[in-house]
Amino acid sequence: MEGMESCTCIAPVNIAVIKYWGKRDEQLILPVNSSISLQAKTTVAVSSRFKEDRIWLNGKEESVHNKRIQNVLAEIRRRATRHHVEGADGDIRQPCVHICSENNFPTAAGLASSAAGYACLVYTLAQLYGVSGELSGIARQGSGSACRSMYGGFVLWEMGQSTDGIDSLARQLAPANHWPSLRILTLVVSDQKKQVGSTEGMQTTVATSELMKKRVEVVPQHTEDMIKAIQQRDFPTFARITMQESNQFHAVCLDTYPPVFYLTDTSRLIIQMVHTYNTFHNHTRVAYTFDAGPNACLYLLEEDVPYIVALVNQFFPPPPNTQQAFVRGINVAPASLDKDLLECFKIPRSEGEIKYIIHTKVGSGPQLIEAEHSLLNSDGLPK
Ligand code: DP6
User: Tell me, what's the ipTM?
Assistant: First the structure.
């Protein structure tokens, strides 16, 4: 298409180790506490010069007339230094955009796909429109947790104090290579029931949960201790706070009226498996965390990965004749497990309950990638 310009970027999903749950401002998406996340990756593309703004998500066209998308587009266009034509009448005219976004994670399953999606949208639009400087405040207005995906490594979303949200921003605590031996195993649980979305869930929690009042008081201390644990690469403390945060988040969900359930029986068996492993070693070697869905994210050090993968294979094996790889991402050879370790586990063998495992490291932030990876063809339509 004549005059078309496009830009393709990728952005990471982020799994919170200090949970964001509850807003103090719905419009601006301002949280009631600060939160911290780590990263994995996903892909999005953006192009420009069309008759109307259009968006395709995972191959399906969606309405662009969504408040959050509109807020993000308006903010980017306001700060644009390119494609920003001021007419003789003083009006600002800007070409329309076609947005095409895909992710390789189960959507709406509590794997932070909206975080990666909005982070990528903001980053890609910023490249195209020449918007520089602080972008996490724009991403936040797409989805709260998206502001943390604007940076790689270990990221803190500072809740901020200002009513206009100007100081509710993300910042990097440490780069991705700060803790090279840290690994993430995402256990994708098979039974993905339709859950209450995060936006609605946290609204009901803030409105009804008494426990939430206590949580808001204790999160600042969790955050301070977590920052120190990350700086000092203190795995046992990092792991303990991660698990306590996950448990407290799901406790306030249960204390919500009517209650919100994200954990399933499989999630609870995973929790039991992790604690049994840690108790056997008399040391905290693995942590779990769950967002708004049943999938587990396990944080652990490289040396424990072969054992945990072997344990998942043992207790949650894929059904026989499964064609697709059970472990994806970084290659790993499962360890052989000692009899005395196996005897400690009082959990049933649940075949097919875990669909697959994703093995990753802490990732980097959004990145521009080559035009050959564009999701839009030369007419600006999905390929
Ligand atoms: C459980 O960022 O999806 O993943 O701001 O309403 O879009 P909105 O909510 P969202 O909430 C994420 C909640 C969480 C915890 C976290 O990521 O900190």
Answer: 0.97
